[in-house]
Amino acid sequence: MSASSFDSTAYAADSPLPSSTRPVRAELANLLRSLQPGQRIRITQTVAINTRRRWNTTIEGVFRGVNFLVTGLATERVPEDDIVVATVHFTKDNGELSSITLDDDSQVEVVK
Fold first, then answer.
1. CATH at 43
2. pLDDT tens-digit profile of 27-44?
């Protein structure tokens, strides 16, 4: 698997996404596997500040790939301390290359 894309052919459709610390919802994992570079996508996420404010934000762009972001400190720690999240890479309409890490409430859809 390259750093810029997810090889959807290497994994069964009903298996969890590899390298993700927390399971990605089955329908989202299946959609991510089916996306092809060049497809137009819309991502909606909920932004929360403390417990007082929450709002949805949506972005559209052209899908480039999926891979995984490993978070953690740059020190020697046990591997269980690392958090690995699925990251969607896309190009915004203004040409900016962008990436969004997915959480439990992320929605990704193909725009026709």
1. 2.30.30
2. 998 999 999 999 999 999
